Amino acid sequence: MAAPIKVVVTGAAGQIAYSLLYQVASGAVFGPEQPVFLHLLDIAPMMGVLEGVVMELADCALPLLAGVLPTANPEEAFKDVAAAFLVGAMPRREGMERKDLLSANVRIFKEQGQALDKVARKDVKVLVVGNPANTNALICSKYAPSIPKENFTAMTRLDQNRAQSQLAAKLGVPVQDVKNVIIWGNHSSTQFPDASNAKVRIGGVEKSVPEAINNDAFLKTDFVSTVQKRGAAVIAARKMSSALSAAKAASDHMRDWFLGTGDRWVSMGVVSDGSYGVPKDVVYSFPVTVSNGKWKIVEGLTISDFAREKLDITGKELVEEKQDALDVCKD
Ligand code: NAD
Ligand code: LMR
């Protein structure tokens, strides 16, 4: 058995963590041979609730769980961690856009960037889930200059999973038979879910999704807006934001980053190098493949005029969010 790795989950007393912690501690993320030592960060008033979560983790009797450290101190939480799930932040409520959370949440990611910079492993892989996730990840990276920018990512995997699931339902196939759907840009209502390169396996034969669906209007309108608005639809129904599916997506994202994707494409918000003509130095979701713990943007895709407009809209929003976040961090 390998030596345990230290993994931090922030917002550990919250909704998403309640599903995520079991997945991490049971081997679904880092593999069935990798023990984990969990660091659980939340704010001081939540320490009582967190104690209950610690009890439940013990009661799960999980062979891969090497230990648990609950704390309200970011420097203790981030000490020597190899993976960081940054979940802790305020969720939106009905009628809000995710960027409405910016002024409340971005300071958390400034402070946590500074703490990661001081005490985390320099190869730590950071996944930001707390909204607005892309801009929070950018700010976290900015305040952790000793850690490579490539190590900071934002979660758009939930959008990818939603898109894949919508396409599978439309095609009447199991969800794993659809691949290579892309989420471009921001985890917000401007994101562009793009099925133009997606593939589906039907009757043992791989086909292009646009050909199999044969309904361009659906792929350009209903499909896009259903995925863009899915988070809001869940909030309207549950009166709370998605948690089960968000935790599953966070597990998928970190597992693929650690263990690799093969030739499957996955979407991750990463610090943009300007690929596909989108703005640089914002955290933009691209299609990537991962091997040996490193992600790489899928190159050479054709961008239609329709897609170009969508990529630019979500890029513009990220540039505006970045400026707003930098202004908040000055205070
Ligand atoms: P929640 O309110 O149930 O839990 C959040 C937890 O974070 C709380 O326990 C809170 O005390 C804690 N917290 C607040 N400030 C903190 C800090 N400075 N350090 C550590 N912990 C802190 O919320 P949730 O439903 O778990 O959602 C968490 C975040 O994830 C929200 O911002 C939500 O919008 C976001 N989210 C993102 C996605 C995505 O796809 N990227 C999906 C779902 C939810
Ligand atoms: C989601 O996509 O479900 C989350 O980002 C929560 C939200 O505010 O929509």
Automatic annotation (TrEMBL):
Database matches in InterPro entries: L-lactate/malate_DH, Lactate/malate_DH_C, Lactate/malate_DH_N, Lactate_DH/Glyco_Ohase_4_C, Malate_DH_AS, Malate_DH_NAD-dep_euk, Malate_DH_type2, NAD(P)-bd_dom_sf
Keyword Plastid: no
Reaction(s) this enzyme catalyzes, per UniProt: (S)-malate + NAD(+) = oxaloacetate + NADH + H(+)
Annotated catalytic residues: 187 (proton acceptor)
Source taxon at top rank: Eukaryota
Keyword annotations: NAD, Oxidoreductase, Tricarboxylic acid cycle
Record-listed NAD(+) binding positions: 42, 105, 129-131
Binding site for substrate: 92, 98, 131, 162
SUPFAM superfamilies: LDH C-terminal domain-like, NAD(P)-binding Rossmann-fold domains
Stretches assigned to the Lactate/malate dehydrogenase N-terminal domain: 5-152
Keyword Protease tagged: no
Family matches, as Pfam families: Ldh_1_C (PF02866), Ldh_1_N (PF00056)
GO biological process terms held by the UniProt record: malate metabolic process; tricarboxylic acid cycle
Matching Gene3D superfamilies: Lactate dehydrogenase/glycoside hydrolase, family 4, C-terminal (3.90.110.10), NAD(P)-binding Rossmann-like Domain (3.40.50.720)
Gene Ontology molecular-function annotations: L-malate dehydrogenase (NAD+) activity
Broad class of enzyme this protein falls into: oxidoreductase
Domain Lactate/malate dehydrogenase C-terminal: 156-326
Family annotation (NCBIfam families): MalateDH-SF1 (TIGR01759), MDH_euk_cyt (TIGR01758), PRK05442.1 (NF003916)
Family designation: Belongs to the LDH/MDH superfamily. MDH type 2 family.
Protein name: Malate dehydrogenase
Species name: Danaus chrysippus (African queen)
